[in-house]
Amino acid sequence: SERWLRFDDGGQKNLIFLAEKERDTTQGKAARLQIAWMFYWELGLRRVGTDPQGSMQMLEKSGDLYRDLLIGVTRFFRDREAFDVLEHQVIPNLVEEAKTGEEIRCWVAGCATGEEVYSIAMLLHEALEQANQPVSVKIFATDVHPDSLEFASRGVYPEASVEDVSAIRKQRYFHKRRDGYHIVQAIRQMVVFATHNVLTDA
Question: Are 191 and 118 contacting, i.e. CB atoms less than 8 angstroms apart?
Answer without folding.
Answer: yes
